């Protein structure tokens, strides 16, 4: 239903209001964005997806907790990935994103260039989708 409404809104914007929407602010649900892209509302202009930082922050925390659980990074003893450390990392990344908007290269430099670890791969995906 949400995606149908988005497609209708985007496809009639030029005819009805003589304007083009060039960016879509998303709450993390990309089905509406995908539907708009597939409908190709503007032949000569691409639509860009913007993610809400709060939703990116939430996804980072969820991904960290899932990673800790599935990869057994929780472990025991010093260095384990605990709930408290997940919260701390999640908040650090949110702050780093906010402090460095719109300079994506600064964000990447802050977090390092090695995106081979699962945690940094998650971060890389989030940085690529936050504007």
Measured by DSSP, the beta-strand proportion falls in: 5-15%
Major β-sheet profile:
2 strands, parallel
**Spatial gap, N to C terminus:** 26 Å
Q: Quaternary status of these chains?
A: single chain
Mean pLDDT across the residues is: 76
Helical proportion, percent range: 55-70%
Low-confidence stretches: none
* Lateral strand order in the biggest sheet: 1-2
General shape: elongated
How many DSSP helices? Answer: 6
Number of strands: 2
Encode the helix/strand succession as letters.
HEHEHHHH
Question: Which structural class do the helices and strands define?
Answer: mainly alpha
* Cα radius of gyration in angstroms: 18 Å
Organism: Biomphalaria pfeifferi
Domain Mutator-like transposase: 1-110
InterPro entries: Mutator_transp_dom
Protein name: Mutator-like transposase domain-containing protein
Walk me through the structure.
It is a single chain. β1 (23-26), α2 and β2 form a beta-alpha-beta unit. The mean pLDDT is 76. By secondary structure, the protein is mainly α. It is built from 6 helices and 2 strands; from the N terminus they run αβαβαααα. It has a two-stranded parallel sheet. The two termini are 26 Å apart.
Could you give a quick summary of the protein structure above?
By secondary structure, the chain is mainly alpha-helical. It has helices spanning 2-17, 31-39, 53-70, 83-99, 104-111, 118-129, and strands at 23-26, 48-51.
């Amino acid at each position: 239903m949400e995606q149908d409404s988005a497609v209708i809104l985007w496809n009639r914007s030029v005819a009805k209001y003589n304007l083009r929407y060039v960016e879509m602010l998303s709450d993390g649900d990309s089905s509406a964005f995908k539907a708009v892209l597939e409908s190709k509302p503007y032949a000569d202009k691409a639509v860009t997806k913007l993610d809400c930082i709060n939703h990116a922050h939430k996804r980072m925390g969820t991904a960290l907790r899932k990673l800790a659980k599935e990869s057994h990074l929780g472990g025991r003893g010093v260095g384990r990935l605990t709930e408290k450390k997940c919260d701390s990392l999640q908040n650090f990344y949110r702050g780093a994103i906010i402090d460095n908007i719109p300079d994506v290269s600064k964000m990447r430099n802050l977090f390092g260039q090695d995106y081979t670890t699962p945690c940094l791969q998650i971060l890389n995906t989030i940085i690529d989708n936050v504007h």
